[in-house]
Amino acid sequence: SDFTLYSSLMGMDIHGKTVGVMGTGKIGQILCQIITGFGANLLAYDVFENDDVKKMGGKYVSQDEIWKNCDVIFLMMPLLPATKHTINEKVLSKLKKGVLLINTSRGGLIDTPALVKGILSGVIGGVGLDVYENEGDYFFQNWSGQAIEDNTLVTLLGSNRVVMTPHQAFFTKEAIDQIVKVTLENISNYSSGLRGKELPNSI
């Protein structure tokens, strides 16, 4: 019931800030639309440049340009050998001081000890995480009243610069309905004899 306006709770306007989106696939593209709607300067990074992102004013740049210029960085990439620990200790010295880092993609994109170091040093001003590198032992379980043995996770949960949710960014009624619909379609298509690339949702 404490309604005090603490300075640590002060936010910032997105309008006029430089926001970097790393990974501009389907979800990344939608995020870019939202960011441009706030009037932010959009920088993007992806090995495959998206023409729709360019049309909305996004500019593709190198990773180093993202680190140097962005007030906010969103990680929207898949976890691959080439993207693992995209945020690491070597990157910390390249980041704009006070940057906000958001990861709703895969926990392995961030080297977590390096993240903690960045937070404690003030290089990283705030973090939003829906994923965690070692989440398998903890997420989707109730740990109330139990000791969490992962000291790095404990540090993140105890920091007032970190907002963490348990890999639930997908968890909306519409998304769950769509997951069920596509799953049933896949079963039906497979049962009808379709295989491989014949399947509409094949990867």
Mind explaining what this structure looks like?
With 203 residues, the chain is an alpha/beta fold. Helix content is 32%, strand content 15%. It has seven helices and seven strands. It has a seven-stranded parallel beta sheet with strand order 3-2-1-4-5-6-7, with helices on both faces.
Overall mean confidence score, pLDDT = 95
Main structural class: alpha/beta
**What is the strand arrangement across the widest sheet?**
3-2-1-4-5-6-7
Main sheet overview: 7 strands, parallel
Low-confidence runs (pLDDT<50, min 5 residues)? Answer: none
| Radius of gyration, whole Å | 19 Å
Q: How far apart lie the N and C ends?
A: 50 Å
Beta-sheet strand percentage? 5-15%
| Percent helix | 25-40%
Number of helices, counting only DSSP H or I runs of 4 residues or more: 7
Order of helices and strands: EHEHEHEHEHEHEH
How many DSSP E strands?
7
Query: What characteristic shape results from the CA principal axes?
Result: globular
Topology diagram in text:
Blueprint: E1 18-22, H1 26-37, E2 41-45, H2 51-55, E3 59-60, H3 63-69, E4 72-75, H4 89-92, E5 99-103, H5 112-121, E6 124-129, H6 151-157, E7 162-164, H7 173-191
Parallel strand pairs: 1-2, 1-4, 2-3, 4-5, 5-6, 6-7
In short:
The chain has 203 residues and is of the alpha/beta class. Helices cover 32% and strands 15% of the residues. The radius of gyration is 19 Å and the shape is globular.
